[in-house]
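Quick one, tokens below. Sequence please?
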């Protein structure tokens, strides 16, 4: 048995990138009781996107997240938000939600200033209450919402956000496209049985640039999920095709990792607010999937003393690398 360690670093763009124009739209409505409805075409596939969008709306409108409902995507009710790919939903739909909430927020702040006689610049909304210079008043956001309806003030708005990825000159004289990215670095520890070629990933340390943390549990879930998915694609997931026919058509033969295969995962984050991101928060769904395979492959190479150049790292490929030379 040989143990090895490997390190890898990388980045992932937020959105389409490569000069392809990208955008998202959202609608926000505050009811007379202070509850909020967010309409978006952004799909939540379990990655927690709608939770984060609710948090963005709650933060700008000064209510608790429990007062915000995000509708299920329906193109009959919501405008285009683009696909849930490219780690783009947090940045694009998040910015659209914040822009939609802003006019409603201004209505609330102006009403609070009228009610209290305070300078609007000193008024803040937080967790359902009005604050003046950090002091909570006995005036609720729901009271302001009801008054806004009495005065026939607008309490529904749309938000649109687009990123065009401007052309920039690179150091070598060529042209590229400016874009927002999320960085990360992983260190992996593996144990390799040099007689059978079996590889066990014992531990992965994953450190990611996430911008501003909005949902700590969601970020941890995204990184953990990405590492587990990456361990599967690195060690066992291989689509076998013969003359155009897929040979392993079920999970019986196309193996994915289970809870028993999950390594010890240590997570840390670097908070570096991105001015293009909503409240500084970046998407972190895909970066772990990109980086973990390289860290695991480097760790296997360190253990057996031979390079690994093809995924998945099956026992056969490990033994072939060992017999090719060095150990």
């Amino acid at each position: 048995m040989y143990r090895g360690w490997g390190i890898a670093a990388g980045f992932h763009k937020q959105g389409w990138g490569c000069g392809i124009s990208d955008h998202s739209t959202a609608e926000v409505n505050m009811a007379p009781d202070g509850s909020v409805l967010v309409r978006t075409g952004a799909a939540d596939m379990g990655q927690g996107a709608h939770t984060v969008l609710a948090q963005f709306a709650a933060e700008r409108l000064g209510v608790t997240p429990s007062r915000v409902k995000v509708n299920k995507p329906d193109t009959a009710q919501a405008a285009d938000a683009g696909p849930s790919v490219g780690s783009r939903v947090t940045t694009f739909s998040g910015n659209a939600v914040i822009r939609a909430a802003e006019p409603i927020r201004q209505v609330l702040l102006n009403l609070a200033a009228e009610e209290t006689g305070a300078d609007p610049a000193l008024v803040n909304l937080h967790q359902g209450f009005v604050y003046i210079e950090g002091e909570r008043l006995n005036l609720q956001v729901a009271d302001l919402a009801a008054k806004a309806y009495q005065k026939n003030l607008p309490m529904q708005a749309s938000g649109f956000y687009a990123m065009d990825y401007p052309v920039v000159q690179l150091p070598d004289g060529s042209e590229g496209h400016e874009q927002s990215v999320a960085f990360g670095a992983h260190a992996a520890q593996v144990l390799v049985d040099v007689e059978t070629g079996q590889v066990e990933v014992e531990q992965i340390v994953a450190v990611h640039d996430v911008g501003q943390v909005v949902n700590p549990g969601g970020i941890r879930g995204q990184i953990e999920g990405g590492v587990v998915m990456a361990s599967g694609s690195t060690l066992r997931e291989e689509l076998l095709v013969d003359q155009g026919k897929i040979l392993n058509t079920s999970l019986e033969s196309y193996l994915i990792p289970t809870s028993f295969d999950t390594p010890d995962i240590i997570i840390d984050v670097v908070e570096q607010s991105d001015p293009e991101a909503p409240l500084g928060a970046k998407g972190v769904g895909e970066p772990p999937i990109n980086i973990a395979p390289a860290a695991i492959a480097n760790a296997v190479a360190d253990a057996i003393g031979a390079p690994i150049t093809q995924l998945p790292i099956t026992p056969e490929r490990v033994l072939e690398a060992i017999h090719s030379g060095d150990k």
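The two ends are 12 Å apart (CA to CA). The chain has a mean pLDDT of 90.
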